[in-house]
């Protein structure tokens, strides 16, 4: 992120108003019009984990124990329980 001088970008009236609130401090202004994507949507990890969790639930329903699933997926016993018992 590149810092830019507000004096070069903003109209004088707006700059004076902003200075009333944050005089001399750094101010972050987030992007306004772009809709922010949720966690894991860009990389695809969210859908990958959802698919994995569905397989884990299916295997549990077909008789696999929580301990077996924890070993197979290299996850803790409690994590497997959270995946299985989470309301979808």
Automatic annotation (TrEMBL):
Question: Origin, by domain of life?
Answer: Bacteria
Q: Which residues form a coiled coil?
A: none
Enumerate the InterPro entries for this protein: c-mor_Regulatory_Protein, Homeodomain-like_sf, YraL-like
Instruction: Spell out the protein name for this chain.
Output: Mor transcription activator domain-containing protein
Lineage here is: Bacteria, Bacillati, Bacillota, Clostridia, Lachnospirales
């Amino acid at each position: 992120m590149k810092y830019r001088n507000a004096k070069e970008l903003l109209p004088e009236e707006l700059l004076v108003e902003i200075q009333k609130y944050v005089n001399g401090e750094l101010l972050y202004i987030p992007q306004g019009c772009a809709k922010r994507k949720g966690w894991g949507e860009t990389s695809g990890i969210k859908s990958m984990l959802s698919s994995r969790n569905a397989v884990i639930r299916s295997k549990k329903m077909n008789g696999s124990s929580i301990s077996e699933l924890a070993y197979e997926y290299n996850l803790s016993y409690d994590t497997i329980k959270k995946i299985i018992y989470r309301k979808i």
